[in-house]
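@channel anyone free to eyeball this complex?
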Amino acid sequence: MDDLITEFLTETNESLEELDLDLVNLEQNPNDKGLLSKIFRLMHTIKGTCGFLGLPRLEKVAHHAENVLGRFRDGDLEVTAEYVTLIFESIDRIKLIVRGLEAEGKEPQGDDSALILKLDEVYEGKVSAMPNDTPTPPPSHACPRGKTQFRGPGS
Amino acid sequence: MEKPSSGDPDLKIGGVLSQDELDALEAAFQAAPGPEAIAEPVAEVAAPPPPASAPETSAQEPQDSQSGSVSSQSLRVNVDVLENLMTLVSELVLNRNQLLQILRAHSESEFSAPLQRLNQVVSDLQEGVMKTRMQPIGAAWAKLPRIIRDLSLELGKKIDLDMRGQDTELDRQVLDLIKDPLTHMVRNSGDHGIETPAARKAAGKSETGKIVLNAFHEGGHIIIQISDDGKGLPLERIKSKIIEKNLASAEELAEMSPNQIQQFIFRAGFSTAEKVTSVSGRGVGMDVVRTNIEKIGGSIELKSKEGSGSTFTIKIPLTLAIVSALIVESAKERFAIPQLSVRELVMATSDGENRIEHIKGTPVFRLRNHLLPLVSLSTLLKIDTPAAENTLPSALAKHQYIVVVQVGTSDFGIIVDRVYDTEEIVVKPVAKILRNIELFSGNTILGDGTVIMILDPNGIARQIGEVDTDTKIDSAGREEDVLSDYGKKTSLLLFSAGDKTPKAVPLSLVARLENVDLTTIERSSGQMMVQYRGQLMPILPLDPSVSATGEGEKPVLVFSDKNNSLGLMVDEIIDIAEEHIHIQLDSGQSGVMGSAIISGKATDIIDVGYFLSKAHKGWFKDHGDEPFSSEGAKRNGAAGSNGHAKKRVLLVDDSPFFRNMLTPLLSMAGYSVVSLESALAAMKLCDKGAEFDIIISDIEMPDMDGFQFAQKVRDNSLWKDVPMVALSSHATPQDVNRGMEMGFSGYVAKFDRETLLNTLSKTLSDLHAKRHQEGGAQ
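replying in thread with the prediction:
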């Protein structure tokens, strides 16, 4: 395996572990600005490196998750259990892809569009004026809570 | 970038710098962002060392702030490099040991001082290199908050995870190996342990459950505790699961302590989760956890109280590479036993109190009232010297050493010839060709250059567990099983006294076997006594013909219950046998319950109660005044009613002594007996729907006494018609009356087993007649 990739894997695995821990903390202390920007930075680094190494699938997931984190950071999206779960879902996806990368040396095949759609829905909530409590249809997979309510725009 | 400081800067002061050196400096300056972006002028002037080192540090700073949490003090090193270093240090340690060994032979050597220094340096180096392999345990816990978070969301529970001692460091190899078991256990605590907020509230606890993880050092080991304040292990469910999985019978379970029953969760394929959630209950249970922990030489203990939570304590070695081990010798070969599993060392003498007893070729040792199974290392490894093969080990040496080893919750002793020192040994993996011998966990090189094997206590326990399944007292922890086996098989101690007929007594009644020196026997008012453990213990000859006069020693069976003890003197201990007792001949002889065929011979089963009441007027408290009579009153209990199904008797008594004494008695009389240690346990059994024909209950019991128990039973729909017989050491008329009021149909003094049996059969036949009448009337 490429040395760069090996290094990337070591570092990313560490970052992911840190992200797990930090997100749980964030959920308990949603107003911790320092923590928020650290989480944002970690995700940003993963995204950046992926772009550099040519790992499009990883980059895409990280990018869309980063968008949501960006809204957290800007303070115009409340840190709720639902959203944190969604970020966790993205992290899990990243882990999955990283594991595949570790095993095969290249990104495994897979479809992340459902997850990205969900991330975008939350992200684009920025565009709409006020978030309101309309339930979205339950996500089709992986979300451990089963019925998650998104405070998304109009959907 | 070449660092200018790599050369010796002092030499260059005022000297001429080569172009190369200047270039290097320049590069360093340019890389460093400073107030002055252009570095050349400075370099040209003098290029003194201070500015050369200054940019170096300042060049690192921005990098640090970029990486954020990563401390500037840390460095990423490939694991292989560290492993290699470790191997080299191991070799160095071995060499050092060797040198020290040589030095010991030469007392006045000029090498002694430098070698001492070398010794110290190597020790420090070893410690240093070990440290490079150390990681804080927090690294293994990083996943847990997330897991608990997801778990509480999924299950709708409120769980607080408290992690303490995260900085406790341990070897990364060990860390890797315990990561998964730990995760599994924390998940278990969250899933099975902590209740839902509603259930917690109902139980009077705060809605938020708490899981505490705690890690700390203790004597060269790491202790990790995982405790929760949840519902604890559900005893009843474990029990029914045990029965369902056919791991033990209901009778066996009835004899077990809650803790023993809880240990079953470590058995393979044991999962008590009612439903399989996405988190746990998939059959990959605690047995895997235990196996994994044992694999790294660790142990796991469990304490749980239903209703208030469970605590798991894991003890693991700091590192696997260099361990402290006890060096022992057997049949002229040396072996290392990891110190972690060594609990104590005992020296056995060939005579006297601390001797190894042999029960049908299997050595056992009585260690503080606990029967310790022993295994001789030379026998186990089949390395007996030819001379030793024909003689019993006890005949070999005056002193033998027993290394008491703890595996899981059970102990056993390893007999060795000699015990050396403890030594820090470097663990080398076992060669491939030996890998399937589970007795060894590795090998090592001692200071004198000898290669020795490291024993694996877990492997030994497994080995003797297998070997001994067909012998009587088998491997670690089986003693309790033997005790609980009444109703099925009974372990009997066979001995001879007086005539040729072998005699037997249930082994579980015997507290100790002693050899009493006849000259130490004192006599007071016709009663023989010996001073025993600071008290006077009465001695009775089992048979009048057993002579207690003269010189020498005689074996004595010691029975004891609380403060009382009694010695029964016999001629010779023969054997221990495990048999189904079927009393075939009722004996008119006092002190003999009857005869049975044991090991193919007609054997008298001794009635211990007879001797107890004879020796101790106070043993059975108030009733000692009445002369015990076993004449007349032929047993006409269920034993007489052949052809009928066995009547089921529930015996409730808090004294294990009486349970052990009465259970075989009742079994012999033809009843099927379940004995329990408390009324509460009995009520649980009742709730479970167990059926009995008659209940015998002690009166004086902690928590719930016999009267309360009777009241409860009478209120209870299932057992309300089951006749109850009270068993008590107080049998005053008032007591009897009160008992009758409470719903006991009979009231028998504890010692009076004849009456008990009569009462049982009478009560049962009365009941039968009554039912018959009722049936006829309808």
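from a first look: Confidence is low (pLDDT under 50) at residues 126-155 of chain A.
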